[in-house]
Give the backbone structure.
Amino acid sequence: MIYTVSDLIKKYGPRTVLDIPYLEVEKEQIYALLGANGAGKTTLLNILGLLEAPTAGRIHYCSRPVNYAESALQSLRKEVVLVDQHPILFTTTVFKNLEFGLKIRKINKKERYRIIDESLDLVGMREFSSAPAQYLSGGETQRVAIARALALSPKVFLCDEPTSSVDVENQNIIITILRRINEAKKISVLFTTHDRSQAARLAHHTIVLNQGRLVPTLYENIFRGVLQTDPSGQPQCVIQDKMHLSIGEDQVIDKRKAVSVFIDPEKIAVRKPSEDPAVANELQGRVVQIIEENGKVRMVVDAGVWVALLISKKRYQKIVFMVGETIVLSIPPEAIHLM
Amino acid sequence: MIYTVSDLIKKYGPRTVLDIPYLEVEKEQIYALLGANGAGKTTLLNILGLLEAPTAGRIHYCSRPVNYAESALQSLRKEVVLVDQHPILFTTTVFKNLEFGLKIRKINKKERYRIIDESLDLVGMREFSSAPAQYLSGGETQRVAIARALALSPKVFLCDEPTSSVDVENQNIIITILRRINEAKKISVLFTTHDRSQAARLAHHTIVLNQGRLVPTLYENIFRGVLQTDPSGQPQCVIQDKMHLSIGEDQVIDKRKAVSVFIDPEKIAVRKPSEDPAVANELQGRVVQIIEENGKVRMVVDAGVWVALLISKKRYQKIVFMVGETIVLSIPPEAIHLM
Amino acid sequence: WARYKIIKMSTTTSTQASGLLDVLLPELEKDTGITVKVIAKGTGAAIRDGMDGNVDVMLVHAREREMKFIKQGYGTNRYAVMHNDFIIVGPPADPAGIKGNSDVIAAFKKFASNRARFVSRGDDSGTHTKEQSIWKKTGLTVKTNTTMIEKKGKKREITFIHPHGLGNWYLSIGQGMGKTLTFADEKLAYTLVDRGTYIKYKFGREVPVDLEIMCQGDPFLANPYGVIPINPQKHPHVQYELAKEFAEWLVSERGQTIIANYRLLGKQLFYPDAQK
Amino acid sequence: MNLLIDSFISAIRLVVSMDAELDAIVGVSLKVSCTSTVLAGLIGVPLGFTIAFSEFVGKRMTITVLNTLLALPTVVIGLFVYAFISRRGIFGPFDLLYTQRAIIIGQAILIIPVVAAFTIAAISRIDERYRKTAMTLGANRLQTAWIVFREARFGIVAAIVAAFGRVISEIGISMMLGGNIKGFTRTMTTAMALEYDKGSFILAVALGIVLLGLSFGMNLLFHFFQGRVHSQ
Amino acid sequence: MNLLIDSFISAIRLVVSMDAELDAIVGVSLKVSCTSTVLAGLIGVPLGFTIAFSEFVGKRMTITVLNTLLALPTVVIGLFVYAFISRRGIFGPFDLLYTQRAIIIGQAILIIPVVAAFTIAAISRIDERYRKTAMTLGANRLQTAWIVFREARFGIVAAIVAAFGRVISEIGISMMLGGNIKGFTRTMTTAMALEYDKGSFILAVALGIVLLGLSFGMNLLFHFFQGRVHSQ
Ligand SMILES: Nc1ncnc2c1ncn2[C@@H]1O[C@H](COP(=O)(O)OP(=O)(O)OP(=O)(O)O)[C@@H](O)[C@H]1O
Ligand SMILES: Nc1ncnc2c1ncn2[C@@H]1O[C@H](COP(=O)(O)OP(=O)(O)OP(=O)(O)O)[C@@H](O)[C@H]1O
Ligand SMILES: [Mg+2]
Ligand SMILES: [Mg+2]
């Protein structure tokens, strides 16, 4: 285990933004950290990056409890490096930005130059080596920040939305780099993202946070909905005025009208349209995307709202769903979670 | 026309970052602005947002030439509002951030309160109304910045990567909002993104920038490649050590070894595998994604590198390509552009 | 009008510091209704205020410069008000061996021959003027220091003299009397001081200076004070009438009595000059 | 050490007895220093903003000149103003010399460069995006400046506090232009200088302690003001 | 106005003739002021950093006290130091009084609060992420401080420049602790004060102009230094 987190609580003022009873992060693996805005992803990375102390709880790093005395942290921080969500470059050249961490590690000049050139090459920013860092564009900045962290060959590499403003060409490159350093140099990687297909492509494990808590759900099909009762008095959840879903009485916990709804993509059933009349929670929609994902197939259906669902490869191959086709989804009440 | 740009040049020091001979932006339309990092997207938005003057060239806004005297700009800026790539909120409450622009427009208190509540509701940040803005998370900040701009009901709405750090639920909401304000309030929208499917979903028109110039290409299948000669002396382009593509002699303009390669997705031919021996530039790969897009079908094939291609719906339906299947791509030299 | 009988007077810091004005001016106000705003500065600056017409009357102790002031037409006439005297003070050990001798010139010669540390005010004040004239009288070789300045297009020279040994045993510090005295005390040096300041620093403080009187009583050490109303012909705005009334009150029976009766820490400081 | 203890006791005694004279002196000091600080703030802050926000040839040279003016000695300012307002000067007829106004003018000249230079320093580190954001939201120059001011207020308030400290502790100008006239232009510092001249060191330091107390009070006010702005 | 023109010409004459005396005075001024500025920088900047970077109860109060010390009058500092180094004080045996060292000590005390307070103000606006980034790259406290220092250097240099301006134009401390001894501790300002007391206003202002020229020169040096750092 590279990290073992127990009873972690982080509060800002009265608000608890993280509450994690137990979490293990294995060595030499790639983790994706998903979650809505404000779920606490950045906060968790800051804590794992040993840059912020938790309000309560224990963290073990490499099986040793972390001591939050500044002096004790300094040596650990040399092994763990974090790339910020909106990284900041020092007001100097790109080259010197990369040199800083290497100088600190007392790496000799020749070696330093070699590493810097190599790292900038990786992210395709070598020609900017002597450019003043403060004028770089958003994506250029992000790439330099990644190179700056990579140059240090850390044991743990924490990345907060590493590709959020990176262009398509370089997104792929960065993903490749992350996979490569993980495989070749056995660096543990933990990154956050809002792009779940990226997470699926790259990560061995996925952690999803919701309002500071670990949740076992997948990070998609999350909608804002409104609770109502339908004409027959049945509770109903309306999503974006377009999708009406009946829900179980027991799910209406309190009378909040606006809720977040998660529809479990693995529990949605799908079939070709037939003459049968539509029953409750059956929707028609058009297939807009079909994507292979970890041995399963992910279909996105435009049913007024875009809904994703996961089916087995077998079923996909058997029924032969095609993009552009109209199909029928049925969403059983147990697939619907109000959050 | 909301904007007519002619002979626009923007230089930073000796470097020309924008060079646009002519560009028209139509009223009441949604434009997506695509391009690699450093292509000049942000710079162009700043110029269209009347926040920066071009080094040379003319810009007409609503058919009147823009006068770059500060006093003349002020009234125009009330109609055009730009949301930054990494927006900054004033160090005060979220509420006051939204109130600032409304106060400037001398909107009375009651109306102001109504608009603020409404705008925050749109982006799902109402409960943060009295929170100090400087402590918001990345995505929360971005959403508040969008609300702050929306509250002003501008004529032109410029957004620099509006959803880059926004979570999935809110990405959809923001896209819906942009479409809605365009339709209902006839607001012209111009946004940048690296997510081409988002661009395809939302925009009426797409503008692609490459190194400061408008290019007619699509914004995908852009790879970093290395030029070599194969054993037979034929020039060859190697992409990520995995894909070897023969290219025409004439394409080797100069002896640069590292190049950016664009493979036109519309010119890639695809067929089911057969017993025929592989000829030059024929690759085998697995279909990983099939996506419906503007009446065509976009397939992403993992041929060592992920390559996208566009085929007509007819051909797709005729041959029935399935996700997970192995197929053969052939990339004719004319589909390969070195940039 | 009575409420507005206010005049401004420039004077030297030592006059203000002696405390006499604090006794004198309230009596004046009672008698004549005149309020005096006192502006205390170095002698040179105080005279400058008179020349520039920034004050209505001037009370200083530098007779030659006062006469010149009148000659140049800045003042109407000089009223001799009072005098006190200068004394030479020094460390109790008396390294130059001058104690008890009233001959200042001899004492100064001994400073030079013994290279005994002497602190000069060096600020062109009344005291400094007096000191320079004593050095001249000793017949020792003195050095002249000259600075050229520009004034209304003409070059003008400013000079001051000092004995040899400047910076060595002769320290020119360019400060007020009180500071000069503490300086001498710190450095255990001799200095020329007016009696009023010495009394204050010797008897008026919790930590008195160690310096003792070494030489006093030489008639040459008298320090006369004069009051001069500013000439209204030069500066029409000055309150000449009030200034004159003030000056005349000072030299009147009443004013002179108050001066004669003023005691600083039980010691008489000023001797009236106007009583015939 | 005795000096300090004695002075401290005297200072307390002074304050407790609070005689009319001390009252007057404190009043003059506060009035003069506050007025000149406000004046310098009203001139120096906009001046700093103007310089920081404009792009012109010789901008950095202007800042260097401004920095040079931080070394303007009080004697020079005193004499300079004196030359104008002395009876022979062009403003002679206004009879300004040896009034509180004269001190205020001189002190304001002393600290305008301080306020302006530190305003520039404070603004120069404020993220350019604040300005850009204000502009795109439709703010005019003044409203944009206000936004930047809000963000830079910690630095600007520090400049004002420093300027206030400078003038309330300043002697040369008060002495030369005010004349240390008892009851009119005698300030804490000129009174201290006088006591010092008289050899009453203890009283001088006692006055200094009172002055510091006063300045502490002013700073507490600033502190709370800043706190309030902060929490907004 | 005459005063100014005359002074200007005299100033030029002074500089052109460059007599030994002026030479000595300028030398003393520069030496003393530069030394005390460097000293104050070496103490004040780290002090400011320490306060700004540490989280402790009463931090804001400490800053308020520091701000109060900006109003420390030179007379008080002069007397305070005097009490220690006078013949009767505890440091009496070192014979410091009326030496350049005494001035340096006093002046450093005067400006340490200035440097510290403005260092704090300068750092407080530096984006927290610079510190965080330095830390995650493995920097220790000193290296982290260096990064923040680099980013805040404009403000900190402004503080140092202001501090230098303050001491080179300061009179009280030089006078009281240096003693204005001709040829030893006479500085530009004490010389000016002396000329003023003598009534030689022209010479006083002439010296002031020379002083400003000098300070301009120092600022040009700073300017180029900053320019170099900037362009790195
Ligand atoms: N210093 C702070 N003071 C108060 N609240 C804070 C502070 N930092 C973060 N928060 C709050 O804590 C919550 C979690 O923040 P965090 O930055 O971890 O979210 P996140 O998951 O990274 O979100 P995003 O996807 O938007 O980046 C947010 O609601 C944020 O407003
Ligand atoms: N002020 C500046 N000085 C010098 N160069 C600049 C400045 N601003 C931008 N540039 C350069 O101009 C180019 C275009 O920048 P711009 O921010 O417009 O890119 P972009 O298309 O928005 O990229 P990204 O996708 O990374 O946001 C970049 O290479 C950048 O380094
Ligand atoms: Mg985050
Ligand atoms: Mg950009």
In short: Residues 2-231 of chain E form a domain with the MetI-like fold fold (CATH 1.10.3720.10). Chain E touches chain A at residues 127, 129-130, 132-141, 143, 147, 150-151, 232 (CB under 8 Å). The mean pLDDT of chain E is 87. The pocket of adenosine-5'-triphosphate (ligand 2) is lined by residues A 135-140, 165, 167; B 12, 17, 35, 37-43, 85 (CB under 6 Å).
